[in-house]
Amino acid sequence: MRGSRPVVEVVRLGLVSYQEALRLQQVYVSRHRSGPAHALLLCEHPPVYTTGIRHKPYPAPLLDSLRLLGADVHRTNRGGLITFHGPGQLVCYPVLNLSNFKKSVRWYVCELERTIISVCSRFRIQASTSPHTGVWVRDNKICAIGIHCGRYVTSHGLALNCNTDMSWFSHIVPCGIEGKGVTSLSTELQRDVSVEETIPHLLDAFRDQFNCQLTDGPTPETHRDSGQSSA
Fold it and tell me: I need a surface site. Which of 32, 185, 186, 189 has the fewest CB within 10 A?
């Protein structure tokens, strides 16, 4: 990377619906049209199952059964298959122009993985990558990663299980990977690890891994949405 370190604005959204998070990501993506406007959106979601890009839609009965659990269901344009987001999960949506970092989606995904491995190490948890995208503790996924990149501007991102209710994952095959499990920081450490406790470690690791400067940004006004599912 040449020149000064890119400045990335940290935006703390708190608990926000998935649909509203999608809208806000597009707001921040649009800012890049007039120059670098890197942002890191941090949030939690009410219970929601999201499906990524795949050749065929998920069967309607499956999606209906998930809605009956009390969760929303949304189809997205990120990579990957089906996963769950909910309270106790730290969701991070980096909106970066990779032209100011490195013009490589593969590099970007690897840097996200390394960021989470670093976060886990700060909790003395040994995590690693695998042939499957994401970050793993043994055969259990602790962090899902699914991104979208258009004209080198990124959206979507990662979801790190902190003190998530893991029972929500039992209704799906997370990310479509058979024979694997899921875990969380709390499960691994056998104590409660909140999103609030995890955020400073994530920010430190992201700053180091992406060689950037972080600055606190204003919290945007959020809109209430209808909560209707889109899948």
Answer: 189
Q: Which residues contact 212 (CB under 8 A, 6 or more apart)?
A: 5, 6, 7, 8, 38, 101, 206
Token pair 């995590």 is found at: 127
For 25, the token pair is 């990501």
Candidate list 43, 143, 162, 175, residue with the active-site label: 175
List, for residues 140-175, the tens digit of each pLDDT value. Answer: 999 999 999 999 999 999 999 999 999 999 998 776
Active site residue 92: no
| pLDDT for residue 2 is more than 80 | no
The model's pTM: 0.91
Nearest Cα neighbor of 128 from 140, 188, 171 is 140
